[in-house]
Fold this sequence. Notes:
Layout: H1 3-8, H2 12-18, E1 23-27, E2 37-41, H3 52-64, E3 68-74, H4 83-102, E4 106-111, H5 116-122, E5 125-131, H6 136-148, E6 153-156, H7 174-189, H8 237-251, H9 255-258, H10 271-275, H11 281-293, H12 299-322, H13 334-342, H14 354-358, H15 365-377, H16 382-395, H17 399-413, H18 420-431, H19 452-456, H20 461-467
Helix pairs in contact: 8-11, 11-12, 12-18, 15-20, 16-17, 16-18, 17-18
Amino acid sequence: MSPADKAAQIPDELEKLVDQPRVLVRRGGAPRKDGICVVYWMQRAMRIVDNSALNVAIEAANVLGLPVVVYFQVIPNYPNANLRHYRFLQQGLRDVAEDAAARELTFIVRRSPARLEEFLEEVKAALLIGDENPCREPERWRRALARRLRIPYWTVDADVVVPSRVFGRSFVLLHHFRPRLKAELPKYLGTPVNEPPYPHWRLHKRVERFSLADDITEGFTKLDRTVGPVDSFIGGTHSALRRLGEFVNNELKDYEETRNHPETRGTSRLSPYLHFGNIGPLTIARAVNKAVAEGKASAAAGDKYLEQLIGWRELAVLFVRHEPNYDNWECAAPWARKTLLEHAGDPRPHRYSLRQLEHAETADELWNAAQREMVQTGWMHNSMRMYWAKMILNWAPDPATAFDWAVLLNDRYQLDGRDPNGYAGIAWAIVGRHDRPWFNHPVFGLVRAMKGASMARKFDAQAYIRQHGEPA
């Protein structure tokens, strides 16, 4: 059934909610007649503040005269997640619980083996609203769920500024994407987030829930606990908003000069919060624009930052949405594939195993510092991410292995790993996606090459190396 056919089954009083590009009707039809609530299945947009998916659920509930139940299910097998990721996730859930209580929204957390469909039946859900997520496995979950459900199911594109369906395709280069994005942005940035009033209806039904005072990973016997939590980032909307305030009030003014200086940490460091949905890009973009309007930063600094937040990030989302092989070598730009294969037999300056890379045991101290920053803090400076991935290409046996190793390390240690931004960044660095051919070099061919000596001249590399030296 086409989206148009599905939408045609929606009752008139709800039609305006699905008639917007941010909403996808995955299963149409009228809400359950004896339903007693609308369920928002929170997954990617893990926040109450500025959450357009939650807002759609509240608007639908207001039309139906029903309460909203926010539901989060903890599963033991999030793809490639480990204890570091789960701890950050739990910190975020505690903020969700506090913010939901402040709005008098019912928030329920359960853990596997609980099943979403059983919960929907238990609370007699009239309608299910969920989050969009372009990554392969979450999309598979949504498609399978839509086939099994007996109630309407809509998903909302809550973690981009411009809904991805507006564009309908990916783009080769940022400057191809930029005009289309610029034309759409005023429609989404120019008006306040629609925070619908909520009459504070409560679910008059006792429902079992998991206490977030307990460890959400207890009993997860197959969970990788070798990658431990970090204290460099605390998960949740409250930490995200504090970090945003520090950035726009004190650091944005220097962004043009410091953003390429890893030793100064001259970036917003909001990517872990964006990945976990603790904060949305609209919240950040509006705060940046407000700071510029108040004279706290120049328009040029604001524009530079917003190009990273919206331009590159949403280009990455489109890449993952439309490229089935976004996390492996098969996504290579055609020109890059050809030249990398031509240079596949070139001698490597060094050959390192995956274990040596993981433990930062190379002859390149700048690269080692970047690897240790990631392992020790759960984050790596943007400029170093490019160099980090390109050196893996320079040292791995072949481009396909280089891509696999970069994805494995990125997803294992980065708090913002397992994310479209990370996959697009690796694809840019190793296989030329969203880039153009450059000068011919050994190993790299026409893929843009980077060298440690030239990289080190751009900032105080020794200071960065000292910051991320050998662990005590």
